[in-house]
Here is the input.
Amino acid sequence: MLISKVIAVICVIIRNDLNMVRFGMNPEEPFTMLLTPICRLLFIRHSYVQLNIIVPKSLLNIRMMMHNAFKIAYLNDLVPKNYIEYIVLPKVIKKEMRVLTKAEQEKLLIAITNTDEPYAFGIFLCLSTGIRIGELCALTWDNIDFTNKLLKIRKTLQRLRTLDESDTKTKIYIDTPKSQASIRDIPLTDSMIDALIKHKENMSSKCGLSIVASNQYVITQKINSPVEPKTMQDYFKATVEYSGITKANFHSLRHTFATRALEAGIDFKTLTVRFDINEYNSTTTFGF
Here is the structure.
């Protein structure tokens, strides 16, 4: 998916003008010779943008990344100018955030607390801490500090396309979070600590002590096997439908956590710094 997004961004450049000479590009330069076949492919991939498969916000993020790359190339005399400057991107229209109402949240809690399914506990953990789905999937038991009551976010998990020519088209990558601010320690309440202890006991009684070793995943069904974001999303979708809740995606758990935190009197700075939730400001409105 990431490769498709990068392709779509460069495609915007080609859409503006297929004639590279207009931008001062010499067709005989090695850099241009490398770009030309890619650009032809990108022109076809532009349909991704037209069909709204790739959202404007993603294009904006990739444009920023490519702008920095071309800037370095320009400073090192690899290109005559920063061609990313010519990209015209669609406007980013912010969608109304989906926040579960208190009644919906109660329905969801009833559904996920009446089972010892590890995926259900994953939903509960996200709803209670505001962590991202990739952070949840990468969470291991050594990230839980039971003594100091802290949840330590140090990793995130994604499934991405592979760049090699192997038969495997995608691969799970576990890496550090996308920004320094995302590396954080989240305080846990006594009830959250109790819930984690109970989850750990349930896991060990069903699968043995090895599955709750310090290097094992908190949300899993077998040793050395993390749950994937897609699996968590599918489980959440089924749980929402079963609970009779209006359509909501997994990320709405994060919005719901932030909303409940604000309602409880937690200030914006704490949300931003302690929980790395920066989608909100003092003028943010929520849809219920």
User: Anything to note?
Assistant: The beta strands are 144-145, 150-153, 156-161, 170-175, 184-187, 220-222, 225-226. The two ends are 31 Å apart (CA to CA). The first strand starts at residue 144 and ends at 145.
